[in-house]
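A reminder from the course coordinator: this example appears on the midterm review sheet, so study it carefully.

Given structure:
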């Protein structure tokens, strides 16, 4: 990339109506902070039913999940995919973890963006690498370490 900043084309979709979601410029800032390459990404906010349907169809798991990432390999050298966030679950988790919705959204947007770039957390060593990257990006954005309180559920 020769020292230039990665370019991001970001679309935001809302399949669930809500007035206090983070502004598009914040979503863009969070997504861009996690990029190593140019990207074409859609961030989509969904309800529990859509999250559950996607989780069942594509991961063969029951129940809604806080974040899903879908990678499209049709653009060599570019990150291309979707990050799907389940708003009711994000709200619930933020409340349980004692953090703002914005801080939790920042974490999960970054988490999803890292998945689009090949990061994973299936094995302990992968999880440690991914978490360290998330914490560093969030710290640069002024967001607290989401893994500091290990007794609460996190993005997994």
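Designed residues:
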């Amino acid at each position: 990339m020769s020292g230039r900043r990665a370019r991001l084309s970001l679309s935001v979709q809302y399949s669930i109506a809500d007035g206090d979601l983070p502004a598009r410029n914040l979503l863009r800032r969070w997504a861009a902070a996690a990029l190593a390459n140019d990207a074409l990404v859609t961030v989509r906010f969904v309800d529990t039913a859509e999250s559950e349907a996607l989780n069942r169809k594509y991961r063969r798991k029951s129940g809604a999940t806080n974040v899903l990432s879908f990678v499209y390999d049709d653009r060599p050298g570019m990150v291309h995919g979707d990050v799907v966030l389940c708003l009711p679950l994000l709200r619930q988790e933020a409340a349980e973890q004692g953090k703002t919705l914005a801080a939790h959204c920042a974490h999960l947007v970054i988490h999803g963006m890292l998945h689009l770039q090949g990061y994973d957390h299936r094995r302990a060593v992968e999880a440690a690498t991914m978490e360290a990257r998330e914490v560093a990006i969030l710290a640069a954005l002024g967001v607290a370490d989401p893994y500091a309180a290990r007794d609460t559920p996190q993005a997994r």
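The domain at 8-140 is CATH 3.40.390.30 (Collagenase (Catalytic Domain)). The chain has one domain: 8-140.
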